[in-house]
Design a protein that fits this description.
single chain, 751 residues, alpha+beta, Penicillin-binding protein 2a (Domain 2), Beta-lactamase, 7-stranded mixed beta sheet, 6-stranded antiparallel beta sheet, 20 strands, 18% strand, penicillin binding
């Protein structure tokens, strides 16, 4: 038993040992396979690292060192402007341009070096270099001499941190004398003129070095040496071009250039809207009023830079787009004729003795139903400081920025106010006679007209009829040689009524800086009578045309506007883009007066121009001021406002201790045809003549000729088969045209 057990145990041990030997045989194989796999993996890893370091090492190094992408906006040309007949009046002309782009790593000495090179290739005017810039450049060029400007004691304070570097620099600037600046040569100033352009604006944004009068030789020379001029490039820039020269240029407005960029006072506003400091923007009038429309859509360039600020690559992300186009309500052919007429008559009047104070004249022509300004002109007589000769300069802004007493032209508003307040009724007769009011100069018409009604009062321009109407509005009673008791609240009643016509309030024109005129502060009975004939408060020439238009169209005060349409820009210069926005006629208010009252005044204005005895009859129907026969049935109201001279030379009289002379403002307002007006106009000629001078009737001469010009132009276009409203070829199927326009608008709205 024991043996058996012993034997059996040994056998089991042998079996176990055999199994262990077999297992030991498999283990080295597995380990070897594992080691081999690890060896292969490490080999592949080492190989890959070698490829990365040796083959792509520099590329990956740049990738690691790369910082955020820098996107730079690039300006685009501004939108164009067209007149109502789609004739370009403001365009863009291409310019050869030389630019410079600096990076974050560009050093001052690098820019100076490039500037010196460029100065040998281009002619750069130095007339815009300031004295401060010359001083800065002098310090850069002569650092040792600049250091000598600081005393030893001041340097010691600087080293002891008792004086900062800015103070040291300010002292150097202050102590640079004129003789020091004379050390700068003509060549130095050219370099400075280039350098000052280089440092404008931002890093990575191309700065215009020169874009005016770049010759073909300069352009080619720079182009051939771009490799040795780091940062310099050649491109095509643009500038504003005016096909009609100076015609209406002051209203079209000005645009800043690259050197001036954003106006200082408005820079924060524009920068907040995404502009760059050197962007060109509108500075006045239409260019400024519609800046958001005219400004082009900027292109974008993506610059990739490393940590040091070096540009790795540049890529155009999006192309820019020219700004949207404006179509104006102005008819430039009519505008040119109006300019010529005003200029001719103003110059002729100045040659007549007694007109030394006459220096300006204004005309406005408007569609009375839509408010579209068809022509607007202002001329001012000045003496050229260089030549000493008289010249006429554009003063069209004066149409809405200056105001004058308009005289009898406003009597239509007085009559209608009389109807409205119940002071008079249509057809009422009032006796025209001189008025003698205590402590007041005699008040009268230019002649005693006797017993007249409202129509005759307008036709012959009776002052007394208006005086007595104002007295009734103020509930007064006239007694010869006695004081005139009046309820002075009549001032408020009459002014409130006048404002409904646009007299004494802003017209709403889409141009900046509009003025409302002057409202007399003193309220006396005699002054109320003066107000009734347009010789107290002052109004603008634009307010006068809005007033006459309100009567012409039956009582609707229309907002005047110069913009007619906004259109998409197109690349083809011969094409006009689709409409984006169309300016609709806007009624500001409606006269709270009966239609028959307005019709009554319209009849009075018709008689003024068309019936013998009317103050403008000899103007329009006897060919006194024009050889063109009147066929367009005008209605009008003339005016003469007497008062002490209040023009720009008034201070000279006061300084010399001389008496202020009495002068007369001449006005004329009207419309035609009288039964369905298509054009209204105003003429204002301040300080036209002085006492004892011959009255040149310049207002009548201008008024007749501008209306002749309008209707002659209309006739010519009709004879040529052109549409009078657009001066484009007529189309037989007008319904089809309307349908097409409607479809285009719907498509634009959908987009």
């Amino acid at each position: 038993m024991g043996f058996a057990d012993d034997y059996s145990g040994k056998g089991m041990c042998r079996v176990k040992n055999t199994e262990k030997k077999k297992k030991k045989g498999f283990i080295p194989v597995r380990i070897n396979i594992l080691f081999f796999a690890v060896f292969l993996l490490f080999s592949l890893l080492i190989l890959r690292l070698g490829v990365v370091q040796i083959v792509f090492g520099q590329d990956y190094k740049k990738e690691v060192e790369r910082i955020e992408d820098v996107t730079v906006p690039m300006s685009s040309p501004r939108g164009k402007m067209f007149d109502k007949n789609f004739k370009a009046i403001v365009d863009n002309t291409p310019l050869n341009a030389i630019t410079y782009t600096r990076t974050q790593t560009t050093k001052q000495e690098d820019m100076i070096k490039v500037a010196r090179e460029l100065a040998t290739m281009i002619d750069q005017p130095d007339d815009k270099v300031t004295e401060r810039e010359k001083k800065d450049f002098w310090i850069m060029k002569y650092p040792n001499k600049a250091k000598e400007k600081i005393s030893e004691d001041e340097w010691n304070k600087f080293k002891a941190n008792k004086m900062d570097s800015d103070k040291i620099y300010d002292l150097q600037l202050e102590r640079i004398k004129k003789k020091d600046l004379e050390m700068l040569t003509k060549s130095d100033l050219e370099v400075l003129a280039i350098y000052r352009q280089m440092i404008g604006g931002y890093n990575l944004v191309p700065q215009i070095i020169k874009n005016q009068d770049v010759t073909d030789e300069e352009f080619a020379r720079v182009s051939a040496h771009l490799a040795s001029l780091p940062g310099v490039d050649i491109t095509t820039d643009w500038d504003r071009y005016y096909p009609y020269g100076t015609t209406l240029k002051s209203i079209l407005g000005r645009v800043s250039d690259k050197s001036t960029g954003l106006p200082k006072e408005l820079a924060p506003y524009y920068i907040a809207k995404g502009y760059s400091r050197n962007d060109r923007v509108g500075l006045s009038n239409l260019e400024m009023q519609y800046e958001d429309v005219l400004q082009g859509k900027k292109g974008k360039i993506l610059n990739l830079t490393d940590k040091a600020g070096n540009v790795i690559s540049s890529e155009t992300v999006s192309e820019g787009q020219r700004g949207k186009d404006l179509v104006l309500s102005i008819d430039m052919e009519l505008q040119k004729k109006v300019d010529e007429i005003v200029s001719k008559e103003l110059m002729a009047a100045k040659k007549t003795p007694g007109h030394e104070l006459l220096d300006r004249a204004f005309v406005t022509m408007m569609n009375p139903y839509t408010g579209e300004i068809l022509a607007m002109a202002g001329r001012q007589y000045v003496i050229d400081k260089e030549t000493g000769k008289p010249v006429l300069q554009d003063f069209t802004q004066g149409v809405y920025t200056t105001s004058y007493a308009l005289g009898s032209a406003v009597k239509g508003a007085t009559v209608l106010t009389g109807y409205k307040t119940g002071a008079i009724k249509p057809g009422d007769y009032i006796y025209d006679e001189p008025l003698y009011i205590a402590d007041t100069p005699r008040k009268k018409s230019y002649t005693n007209m006797g017993n007249i009604n409202d129509l005759t009062a307008l036709k012959r321009s009776s002052n007394v009829y208006m005086f007595k109407t104002a007295i009734r509005i103020g509930h007064g009673v006239y007694r010869p040689h006695e004081a005139l008791p009046l309820d002075l609240s009549a001032f408020d009643k009459m002014r409130s009524s006048f404002r409904q016509f646009g007299l004494g309030v802003r017209t709403g024109i889409d141009l900046p800086d509009e003025q409302v005129g002057y409202e007399g502060k003193v309220k006396l009975p005699g002054l109320l009578l003066d107000f009734a004939i347009g010789q107290y408060d002052t109004f603008t020439p634009l307010q006068l045309v809005q007033y006459i238009s309100t009567i012409a169209n039956g009582g609707y005060r229309m907002e005047p506007h110069v913009l007619k349409e906004i259109r998409e820009p197109v690349k083809d210069p011969g094409e006009i883009g689709p409409i984006i926005e169309e300016v609709e006629p806007k009624v500001l208010n409606t006269l709270d007066m009966k239609p028959e009252w307005i019709a009554r005044v319209q009849e009075g204005f018709r008689q003024v121009a068309q019936e013998p005895g009317g103050t403008a009859y000899s103007t329009f129907y006897t060919s006194r001021y024009s050889s063109v026969k009147t066929t367009y049935s005008p209605a009008a109201k003339s005016g003469t406002a007497e008062g002490l001279y209040d023009g720009p030379k008034r201070a000279d009289f006061v300084k010399a201790g001389k008496e202020i002379p009495m002068t007369w403002n001449l006005t004329l307002a009207g419309y035609a045809p009288n039964d369905h007006p298509e054009v209204a106009f105003s003429v204002v000629v301040p300080w036209a003549y002085q006492e004892d001078a011959y009255n040149p009737n310049i207002n009548y001469k201008i008024g007749k000729q501008i209306m002749d010009a309008y209707f002659e132009l209309k006739k010519q276009r009709e004879e040529q088969g052109l549409n009078q409203n657009t001066a484009v070829q007529k189309v037989e199927n007008q319904e089809q045209v309307k349908k097409g326009q409607t479809q285009t608008r719907e498509e634009n709205n959908g987009e």
